[in-house]
Amino acid sequence: xxxxxxxxxxxxxxxxxxxxxxxxxxxxxxxxxxxxxxxxxxxxxxxxxxxxxxxxxxxxxxxxxxxxxxxxxxxxxxxxxxxxxxxxxxxxxxxxxxxxxxxxxxxxxxxxxxxxxxxxxxxxxxxxxxxxxxxxxxxxxxxxxxxxxxxxxxxxxxxxxxxxxxxxxxxxxxxxxxxxxxxxxxxxxxxxxxxxxxxxxxxxxxxxxxxxxxxxxxxxxxxxxxxxxxxxxxxxxxxxxxxxxxxxxxxxxxxxxxxxxxxxxxxxxxxxxxxxxxxxxxxxxxxxxxxxxxxxxxxxxxxxxxxxxxxxxxxxxxxxxxxxxxxxxxxxxxxxxxxxxxxxxxxxxxxxxxxxxxxxxxxxxxxxxxxxxxxxxxxxxx
Length: 382
What we know:
- The chain has 382 residues and is an alpha+beta fold.
- The chain has helices at residues 56-71, 87-101, 105-119, 129-141, 153-172, 199-208, 211-223, 227-231, 262-274, 296-305, 315-326, 331-338, 343-346, 356-371, and strands at residues 2-6, 13-15, 35-41, 47-53, 238-239, 244-247, 256-259, 284-285, 290-291.
- The strands form three sheets. A four-stranded antiparallel β-sheet has the order 2-1-3-4, covered by helices on one side. It has a three-stranded antiparallel β-sheet with strand order 5-6-7, with no helix packed on it.
- The termini are far apart.
């Protein structure tokens, strides 16, 4: 902090200790009509200068006042208030980000569109944690698609998770200071459901699938690939010589290789021979000439014909993993084939191999018997 003197001749601001002007050489001690300035630095390192006038005592008082204000943290530059924007307007910008950066973009866009009727006309900064809690309660009691069925906790959690991320982006992009969805807790989900097809059901399903649907189901049953991974599969990802499928565009951004068995190899080989040489993706919708984005309707029809209930396309992935485990494949191998990031996800299949612990212990017994002599302790009576 310092006092400055403005040179009446050239207007250059000199230190009060200077006897002559550093710019024009004027004798400041004899100069009249000198103007005093104060100079100081705020806590964030910015230099500030203020013009006071011709009175030195007033300049000293102003400098002392600024010193107190800085000490009380009052003179830091106030952050500008975020620009006001309505939820529905911000949702459009967020949707563009999702389209570009998110693998599960279709589902997120659907969830986002479901949030707009409730929050759309509110400004982002007006939405409170209480508003989100009220929305969650309303959704729990009012199912938009099936009024007679309660909304599943998993569905509500996906909506709240989307809100949390949307508001995080709003903070990152300068539209909000705090995330109102952050304190909202998610519901406990029941992830114990594990539906998979029996061998007889597999044959029934394949017998009613035709054309592209049969090929897609065969890929799902023999690889355990996710629906999005199958639809994004390109010919360049298939190595027919090594009989490998390279999954590059996975959910967790980690690539993996899946070996092809004979059924899968012959299915894909036949498709390759029929495909246009310029065709990039394996499964192309002939109506749109673009990769499939869903087969929900045709798959639902096939399930009905095969008389299979309570089953989804994703359950084909469970079917692949379940039959591997039931046929003695270890969980670490299943984890690698499925592309799970955490072994906890794979452990859901462990109960399907009730003898896996017994087999493991038996192997240790065989090792000991082969490498050492077992000493049997004599049995003594009481």
